[in-house]
Amino acid sequence: MDANVRLRDIPSVDELLRSAILVEAVECFGRPAVTEALRKVLATTRDDVRKGGELPPADAIITKAVAALEENDRSTLRPLFNLTGTVLHTNLGRALLAEAAIDAATAAMREAVALEFDLASGKRGERDDHLRALICELTGAEDATIVNNNAAAVLLVLNSLAAGREAIVSRGELIEIGGAFRMPDIMLRSGVRLVEVGTTNRTHARDYRDAIGPETGLLMKVHTSNYRIEGFTKEVGARELACIAHERGLPLVNDLGSGTLADLERFGLAHEPTVSEAVSDGADIVTFSGDKLLGGPQAGFIVGRTAFIEKINSNPMKRALRVDKIRLAALEATLRLYRDPDRLSERLPTMRLLSRPKTDIGDQAARLASVVEHALKSACRVSVVDCESQIGSGALPLSTVPSAGLALTPHSGSGRTLADLAAAMRCLPMPVIGRIERGSLILDLRCLEDEDGFVANLAHLDPPGEGPSS
Ligand SMILES: *Cc1c(COP(=O)(O)O)cnc(C)c1O
């Protein structure tokens, strides 16, 4: 049969739309999307037929269109298994929220709330009012406000307190955090001139004192979140730096980065300066993140002296950086959990995951090794390995937490390379993200809580050699 004859036999969009499967697809995805998907499949079918290919049965055309619709409907922001070993992974969305926070956020999404409305007086209120007292209680600060994230907090604080003037920072603290947050760039954008003092490894009290002049607006201390300077070093501690600032009537701003409200040693982790310590050491303003060790949604906290917080709140930039009711609700519920530190590791996923004992994770790895090997149709060797989990997001940059996991190593000749294997895991309905290390895909199981879901998900793995399905 020549191609023209076969082309005439290709069904029309309208004919295909009458099939039961596509009637259902219209219910699910809407008529315009289904029609568009069919047009695309029919166009490629026509091309194939013109090139001499067989005319596929109508069922095959329908199946292709439905597969395309399903793929197109799948969110790229869908949940995944973070088995990277980094608990607060910035690229994977950092902290998982506590159930109490999820409930509070959901309720705030569904209903009207008294966001800027004072229920007692019936007058206008402020959105910070809901959290101020709680933050002050937990940190010992006089006052507090909340913005979009800690980068916004730093930008707003600098602009509010020192625009057109100078901020003095140690050369050892001029950090760059992933994603183009560089302290010198933030200073520039906030309209503050950076005055660097000391050297990379050593900064003395006299370096700060000598740099203070009529143009100085503030002194700043920055937590070196993702590195440590070791060896022949000297830094001026927060308490001493506060004294130096106050001698000259200047404020000290301390950017804590992650910050923590709890004593991490309780959870078997190394000490990280708490927000209360930074406040009691005399900083006038302390900034920290909501979604790092604190374990809440993305947010930036600014806490400190009332006079400075008022100045910050009257900056028109505050409006551009403020948070919405959903996050405020989640933050409030998260902060409330800190009133009972004994139950934090039960209720706050960040602490629960960070404090999970290695023996527990090792037992899980032993249970899962053969299950995973079987799901991979024995294309890989799967072995239980020791891991070191990282906290991530610039908290405790040098400390790791002993953990356990699985090493997946493709057999040579299995038709599956390491890159194929990692891609197949990323293409699962619930993507599995590990890390490649020394010829294996390592799955650190510290953050694997839904073991049954993980196993069920593996049933969707493509057979080796076929690669991810489209
Ligand atoms: C992480 C971090 C920031 C940025 O905080 P985000 O909440 O990610 O905006 C700023 N400063 C320091 C020291 C940090 O560690």
UniProtKB/TrEMBL annotation:
The keyword Oxidoreductase does not apply. It is an enzyme of class 2 (transferase). NCBIfam families: selA. Pfam families: Se-cys_synth_N (PF12390), SelA (PF03841). This is L-seryl-tRNA(Sec) selenium transferase. Its EC number is 2.9.1.1. GO terms for molecular function: L-seryl-tRNA(Sec) selenium transferase activity. GO terms for cellular component: cytoplasm. Pathway: Aminoacyl-tRNA biosynthesis; selenocysteinyl-tRNA(Sec) biosynthesis; selenocysteinyl-tRNA(Sec) from L-seryl-tRNA(Sec) (bacterial route): step 1/1. It catalyses: L-seryl-tRNA(Sec) + selenophosphate + H(+) = L-selenocysteinyl-tRNA(Sec) + phosphate. It is found in: Cytoplasm. Its main location: cytoplasm. Keywords: Cytoplasm, Plasmid, Protein biosynthesis, Pyridoxal phosphate, Selenium, Transferase. Belongs to the SelA family. The keyword GTP-binding does not apply. PANTHER family: L-SERYL-TRNA(SEC) SELENIUM TRANSFERASE (PTHR32328:SF0). The lineage of its organism: Bacteria, Pseudomonadati, Pseudomonadota, Alphaproteobacteria, Hyphomicrobiales. It comes from the Bacteria.
